[in-house]
Every structure is written in structure tokens, then in C-alpha cells.
């Protein structure tokens, strides 16, 4: 009876501990789901591919578009094999050319030799995504250098009509991509002139966003200023080391944004607006033969991964198909090698079997105990008492253990909290500080010096509210040549099944 009564008492003590309150702003469920995707692909493909252009002027002839071996399955399989969870296609870029037979323009696949004008590449892409279980995203450029009415109110109607075609005809869309390049010179139906628009008002973004909300309520919208996912302020592949998923959203509009603020987010932001790192595997976004030797190396891709996913952002990696309509072998192979390298970085979680203790546990409750960070469940978390903003977790190994990576996650459904943290290791020479950092957010991964340690301590030194840590992992990654090395010789050959998609 005594044991039963004690059990009951403990149980009720557990249950009586008040859950932490959210610290606003917090993410919507779809933003949390989006963030869990971590890596996904970008596909720039269109008339530019055939005219060796990056920003088509709007005057390229649709007759030049003829991908003889177009194979969307090959694209999507390549991305699945490389561990990506989704893919976003440029349904229309700034040159106005549409990869689907839009009812509102002739500047599309309809007037190309591809399948004698009967083709619909958005359809083929959507079918391939569905077949492979990949999430599908679409890019519809607001700027259109082909349209005679660009800059006039009529164009907004045209733009929304196209958005409706894309968001009703092809199934579920996880992300709608609104780029910030806006206005400037173009063909504009033969006018050949420069047109400037007011970036803040011309598109009536709230009205356009409404179309997306109505037709695809589960989709997140990307632009410089969200409303759901923000640009990271550069196209080089890095988020700020300090990266808040918060922004004063009203101060930002597509094409008119403070890049530094986008890179770091704003601790006092009014909205939950996490960063997406868009970057290309090649110098350009579109395929150019001259860039075949310039495909990013595995060490460079790893650098991008650590500077995006490793810094509380997502990694949107562009891999452009060539004129045949397939992803070239060099890019495809590189992706397989990248996936292999990533798997090697995170092959065994050394913290999983270690003991973990905490300097403070919310209400002494097992529900918020230290072991919640190693239980493999990011829905549970270690929490401190409300007034404790400086606290540590210590991982204790049975044997001295070699490690060089630390992965830590906050429980973001209740808000981003940590402002400052430190990582220390108990080595043969005593405690050694390995890193002093700022934000964590959804995920932070640190590349640390390789040390042998008996214990590893993560101390949250400052937080907006009591810290909530859902996951802590330690790894020992192999030595990879520095990113300037440009060789992948040290890595094992590409995964065998990867060959299927070459
Ligand atoms: C930018 C565009 O101007 C580039 O061409 C590319 O599409 C990139 C992803 O977004 O805004």
C-alpha cells in the first residue's frame, strides 16, 4: 500500500507542476511542420535554360524550349535519394514563360515544340512528387518581363488568375515562393522599357496572400517578409550565427528589406518568421554548360548545411536540369556524395546511451527532467522553473569519449527563448570551453574541435524565459577536407541506388 500511495503522490506531484507558458510570438503548426523538413530542393527550369540566360528579358521565343528527354521522375528521385523532403519548381520566372499551359497567356509550353504544345511540365512534376511522396512547392515570379500590362492594375488580376490555376490544378502545395526581384527593364509586350513599381503597394500582397490561404491553407508563403517564411538576406548559403525566428513583419516587403535583419531575425520581432536559405549548387540558378566544372563540392555543401540547418534555418538547394530536361550526372552524383557525407557526420548519437543531469528541473518533475533531451522524442523537453534562466545539462559518459559535433534543439511550439549558451567538456586537463554561442531555435549544430571527454556540459546563460530543450545529441564526425579542397576522394562511392537516377 505504501508503495502504491507513494506512487500516487508522485504522480499527482508530477501532474500538478504547471506547464511552461508560451513566450510570444509562437509558430503556427504548419510552420513547425515546414521547419522539420530541413532540406529541400529548388528547380530553376524554363526558357532561360535554352537561351543561356539567368534573367530572360521576356522576349525569348517559346519555340526554343524543347527538352527532348524531360524526366521529372529523375529530378524527384534524385532529391529523394539525397534525403530531401520537398522540391520547389519555377512554374514562371521573371521572363514570364509558363511551364504549364496557362489559359491566360500564349507565352508558355503551349507554343513550344515540347510534346507538340500538348505538354504540361507542372503536371509531370506534380505527378512525380506524388509518386515519390515528395512535398511540392511552386515559384510564380511576381515580376513578368513578357507582359504588356506589367506595372498596371490589370497585371495583378493576371497574376492572381495564374496563382489560382497553379493552386487548384495540381494537388497539395507545401510552399509558395514569391521572390523579391521586382520591376526594371523588360520586353513588356514589345515596349522595351524600364518600369518601376511601388514594391510596398503594387502587388497588394495581403490580397494575393488571401488567394493562397483560401486555396492551399496548408501552404507556407515565402518572401523577404514572409508572411510565413522569410528570406535569409543573401543567396550565398548562410544564416546568421545569431538567428531568431522572429521579425517585425510589417517593416518588410518583397524586394524592400533590410538584409542584416533578415539574416539574424529580430529578438523582439512581432511575428514568427523563420529563415530559409536559398542557394544554388552552381554559380547560376539556371543550367549553363560553362558552369559544369563549378558544381559545389561536398565540403562546400556541408558548410552550407551547417550554416543553414545548423543555424536554425532550412536549406533550399537549387539543382537545375539541363537542356535535355534531366539533372546532369555531375550534380546528381554530387548530391549522392553529399547525402553520404551527411550520414557520416551524424552516424551515431553518443549522448543517447549516456546519463544526463540538470542543474534545475521544473518542479522536480520527471516530466521535465534532463532525460527528456535524450529520449529521441522532440515533443518532450527539459524545462527549468520559471525564474531560472541560467541552467545546465550535463552528459556523463561511462568511458572517455571522442566527439566533435553538438546538436541541440529548443521546443519551439512554446517560442524561441535561448539568447546565449556555452558548451564545455571535461577532458583529462579539466573543464574546457568549446563554444560560446547565442541562439538555438529549432535546431543548432556546432562543429567543435575534436576532444576526448568524460562529461559534456551545455549551459544556457541567458534566455527570454525558462529554457525548454527538446533534444541534445553528440557525434564524432570523420575528418572532411576543408571546403577549399574541392575533392570528395576521401568519401565512399555514391549509394548504389543513386545510380538509378543518373
Ligand atoms: C531571385 C531571382 O531574381 C533569381 O533569378 C532566382 O530565381 C532566385 C531564387 O530568386 O529573386
3D architecture notes:
With 502 residues, this protein is an alpha/beta fold. The chain has helices at 2-16, 29-37, 47-51, 72-81, 121-132, 153-169, 205-215, 259-264, 298-308, 329-345; strands spanning 39-43, 86-92, 135-140, 175-177, 184-186, 193-195, 220-223, 229-231, 246-247, 271-272, 275-280, 313-318, 355-358, 382-383, 391-410, 418-427, 430-437, 444-463, 468-475. An 8-stranded parallel β-barrel has the order 1-2-3-4-7-8-11-12, surrounded by 5 helices. Strands 13, 14, 15, 16, 17, 18 and 19 form a 7-stranded antiparallel beta sheet that branches. Helix 4 packs parallel to helix 5 (121-132) and helix 9 (298-308) crosses helix 10. Residues 484-502 have low confidence and may be disordered. Bound molecules: beta-L-fucopyranose (FUL). Residues 54-55, 179-181, 278, 285 line the site of beta-L-fucopyranose.
Amino acid at each position: 500500500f505504501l508503495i502504491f500511495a507513494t506512487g500516487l503522490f508522485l504522480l499527482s506531484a508530477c501532474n500538478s507542476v504547471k506547464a511552461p507558458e508560451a513566450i510570444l510570438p509562437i509558430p503556427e503548426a504548419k510552420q513547425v511542420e515546414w521547419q522539420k523538413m530541413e532540406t529541400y530542393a529548388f528547380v530553376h527550369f524554363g526558357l532561360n535554360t535554352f537561351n543561356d540566360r539567368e534573367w530572360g528579358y521576356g522576349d525569348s521565343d517559346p519555340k526554343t524550349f524543347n527538352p527532348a528527354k524531360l524526366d521529372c521522375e529523375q529530378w524527384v528521385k534524385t532529391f529523394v535519394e539525397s534525403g530531401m523532403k520537398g522540391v520547389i519548381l519555377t512554374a514562371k520566372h521573371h521572363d514570364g514563360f509558363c511551364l504549364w499551359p496557362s489559359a491566360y497567356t500564349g507565352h508558355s509550353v503551349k507554343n513550344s515544340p515540347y510534346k507538340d504544345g500538348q505538354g504540361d511540365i507542372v503536371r509531370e512534376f506534380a505527378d512525380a512528387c506524388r509518386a515519390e511522396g515528395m512535398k511540392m512547392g511552386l515559384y510564380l515570379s511576381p515580376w513578368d518581363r513578357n507582359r504588356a500590362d506589367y506595372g498596371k492594375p490589370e497585371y495583378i488580376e493576371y497574376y492572381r488568375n495564374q496563382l489560382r490555376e497553379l493552386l487548384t490544378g495540381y494537388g497539395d502545395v507545401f510552399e509558395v515562393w514569391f521572390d523579391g526581384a521586382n520591376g526594371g527593364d523588360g520586353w513588356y509586350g514589345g515596349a522595351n522599357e524600364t518600369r518601376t513599381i511601388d514594391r510596398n503597394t503594387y502587388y497588394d500582397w495581403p490580397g494575393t496572400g488571401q488567394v493562397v490561404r483560401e486555396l492551399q491553407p496548408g501552404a507556407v508563403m515565402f518572401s523577404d517578409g514572409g508572411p510565413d517564411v522569410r528570406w535569409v538576406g543573401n543567396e550565398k548559403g548562410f544564416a546568421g550565427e545569431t538567428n531568431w525566428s522572429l521579425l517585425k513583419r510589417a517593416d518588410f516587403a518583397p524586394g524592400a528589406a533590410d538584409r542584416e535583419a533578415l539574416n539574424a531575425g529580430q529578438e523582439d520581432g512581432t511575428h514568427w518568421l523563420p529563415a530559409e536559405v536559398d542557394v544554388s549548387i552552381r554559380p547560376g540558378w539556371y543550367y549553363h554548360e560553362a558552369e559544369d566544372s563549378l558544381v559545389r563540392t561536398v565540403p562546400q555543401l556541408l558548410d552550407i548545411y551547417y550554416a543553414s540547418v545548423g543555424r536554425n534555418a532550412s536549406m533550399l538547394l537549387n539543382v537545375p536540369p539541363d537542356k535535355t530536361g534531366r539533372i546532369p550526372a555531375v550534380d546528381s552524383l554530387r548530391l549522392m556524395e553529399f547525402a553520404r557525407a551527411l550520414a557520416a557526420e551524424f552516424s551515431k548519437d553518443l549522448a543517447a546511451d549516456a546519463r544526463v543531469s540538470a542543474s534545475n528541473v521544473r518542479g522536480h518533475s520527471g516530466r521535465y527532467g534532463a532525460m527528456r533531451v535524450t529520449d529521441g522524442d522532440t515533443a518532450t523537453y527539459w524545462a527549468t522553473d520559471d525564474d531560472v534562466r541560467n541552467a545546465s545539462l550535463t552528459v556523463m559518459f561511462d568511458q572517455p569519449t571522442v566527439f566533435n559535433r553538438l546538436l541541440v534543439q529548443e521546443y519551439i511550439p512554446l517560442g524561441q527563448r535561448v539568447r546565449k549558451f556555452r558548451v564545455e567538456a571535461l577532458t583529462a586537463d579539466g573543464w574546457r570551453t568549446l563554444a560560446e554561442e547565442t541562439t538555438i531555435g529549432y535546431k543548432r549544430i556546432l562543429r567543435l574541435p575534436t576532444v576526448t571527454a568524460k562529461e559534456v556540459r551545455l549551459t544556457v546563460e541567458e534566455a527570454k524565459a525558462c529554457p525548454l530543450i527538446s533534444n541534445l545529441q553528440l557525434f564524432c564526425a570523420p575528418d572532411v577536407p576543408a571546403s577549399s579542397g574541392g575533392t570528395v576522394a576521401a568519401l565512399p562511392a555514391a549509394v548504389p541506388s543513386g545510380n538509378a537516377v543518373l
